[in-house]
Design a protein that fits this description.
TIM Barrel; alpha/beta; 2 domains; 389 residues
Length: 389
Amino acid sequence: MSVTPRNPPLRFGMFMGPFHATGLDPTLAIERDLQLIEHLDQLGFDEAWIGEHHSGGFEIIAAPEVFIAAAAERTKHIRLGTGVKSLPYHHPFVVAETMAQLDHMTRGRAMFGAGPGALPSDAAMIGLSPVNMRPRMDEALDCIVPLLRGKTVTKKTDWFELVNARLSVGCFTQPSMEIAVASIRSPAGVLAAGRHGARVLVLSGVDDESLAHHLSNWKIYEETCAKHGHVANRDRWSFAVQMHIAETREQAFNEVQFGIEKWIGYANDIVPAPNPVPRGLPDPAGWVVKHKRAIIGTPDDAVAEIEHMLELTGGFGGILVFAQDWANWGATKRSLELLAEEVRPRLNRTNWLRQASYDRNAPIQEANRALAREGVTEALARYEAGGRG
């Protein structure tokens, strides 16, 4: 064990799309999502990022800001971000005003995460083409970031216009609330984040090929930050991964049979990402572990995989667990408890002083027992001599 804690500590959080099978009552699903945020807060998780989706039936939160406002009232410490706000769907001035208000309502716990929008089926319903989504995200960010910093913006594009626009109420957090940009495959996310000095939220598998790809993107981020006068701090680089853990590996594998097939169906039918997990596998949990699409196992397995990720990438600042119903409600909550109880303290080495104290005193236990006996003997002698014992 290292003799010092990790500095800065690795942040732990959740990336909440969320993923709910279409058979689950939507009202109950949203309530459970709120309860899950409460659970994370009680367990000391650092942050949660809430998604925006409008089709497909699985990811059912359409307005992450509304969800965050409700979650903030139920929690005390956890930070809450849009993960992500799909900028091409919204006028940038309204986005900036809404996020600044949310920053005040949460007393600085709100974070603004931006992206182009993940589902072509969302864009199609409002007449947008996927090829225009990333350019629109860039145009919107170029306005939202200075607006959040209290600046005046004038800009005209083919889909919005700002004329001497300035927020009537700026951010609670000064000079601006925290800003992040999602990065999945293309360098568009890291380029946008680098231009504005924003955090990078990676949605990734844990296989070496994916990690190497994101490391290449990180180098682009470093170059872009330097070009625009920002510092590329690895503490502002977070990885969202699929993860479920239990007391034994066999238990973890059995628990994810509850919902992993439905998630695989959604990944094949709706999500546009290439190379989804194949359908009809005899052992889907074994397949995703073998191909490192997810971490399924024990706390030891989670520690080993995350340490490998840290080593291969050169280090990053946070792990985000995807919110999904691979396991039932009770097992899902227990998985998060194990992350807090066993994985987080081991990776952050938060118990090094406690262990050092234990290791210092265990070898001299017999001497300590002798001292204790001597104290009792002396107390009895004082009592028998008429003292107070």
